TrEMBL record:
Protein name per its UniProtKB record: DUF1636 domain-containing protein
Pfam families, per the entry: DUF1636
Amino acid sequence: MTSSPEEICLHVCVTCRQAGGPDDKALRPGAVLHQALTEALAQPDAPKVRVEAVECLSVCKRPCTIAVSGPGRWTYIYGDLSADTSVETILDGVRRYAATVDGLVPWRERPEAFRKGVVARIPPFKANSAA
């Protein structure tokens, strides 16, 4: 089963922050990154993906953190992203992910930040065919 690009979801941890960073959730780097990605994905030339804010991806030691997922595709979690400089890198990575059938972008074809920042690769969910 393959998914259309519109079914691909970019999850952005909005609670990510650097040690000693602001307590105000709106000012945290994760929230800033989510806002910047939401604005970038609203542009006509942006990849057709859904962006969702999530409260925590449990990668607190490697902020900012995102996950990319889609039906029938591998899910990837990436950390060590910057709210100020990673938007274009993330869009590039999402475009490459969307161009695959199963979410598996060859390692050498991933943006450098995705090669270095990968936290986890999770297999596609498969529904139990036994009723």
